[in-house]
């Protein structure tokens, strides 16, 4: 096994997204992905922090700057209940699709992992797959 060549022991900490309506975005992530809000230790009222579990965080930062992000830049979650999550999206009337953008279709990678893609209220792409479980 290769030695760790990272002398700084870097670990992923958080992802910060620029959003137009912080409250709408926070509600989206909490409702759709069943995530929980955590204490914003900056005490800045224009930022909300959401737990991504395992000590990872999503920081939603209010900004009036327009956002344009291609699908190749995306946040990805894996779930052990892929079909249950798809039903949850359908129940919430949230559009999802395959990599090509065909609505309600699943992408299946060559290794058998199933993937769907959806967008948050600001247009950021999110993948949900059944890998890593």
What sequence of helices (H) and strands (E) makes up the elements?
EHEEEEHEEE
Describe the global form: globular
As a whole number of angstroms, the C-alpha radius of gyration is 16 Å
Question: Order of strands in the sheet with the most strands?
Answer: 1-4-3-2
Biggest pleated-sheet summary: 4 strands, mixed
The count of strands amounts to: 8
CATH class of the largest domain, named: Alpha Beta
Number of helices: 2
- Number of structurally distinct domains: 2
Mean pLDDT: 94
CATH topological fold name of the largest domain: Signal recognition particle alu RNA binding heterodimer, srp9/1
Q: Pairing-aware structural class of the strands and helices?
A: alpha/beta
Strand content: 25-35%
CATH architecture of the largest domain: 2-Layer Sandwich
Task: Determine the N-to-C terminus distance.
Answer: 23 Å
- The portion of residues assigned to helices is 10-25%
Brief rundown of the structure:
The chain has helices at residues 22-33, 82-91; strands spanning 14-19, 36-38, 47-53, 56-62, 74-78, 107-108, 114-119, 125-129. By secondary structure, the chain is of the alpha/beta class. The chain has two domains: 12-65, 2,3-Dihydroxybiphenyl 1,2-Dioxygenase, domain 1 (Roll); 68-133, Signal recognition particle alu RNA binding heterodimer, srp9/1, CATH 3.30.720.
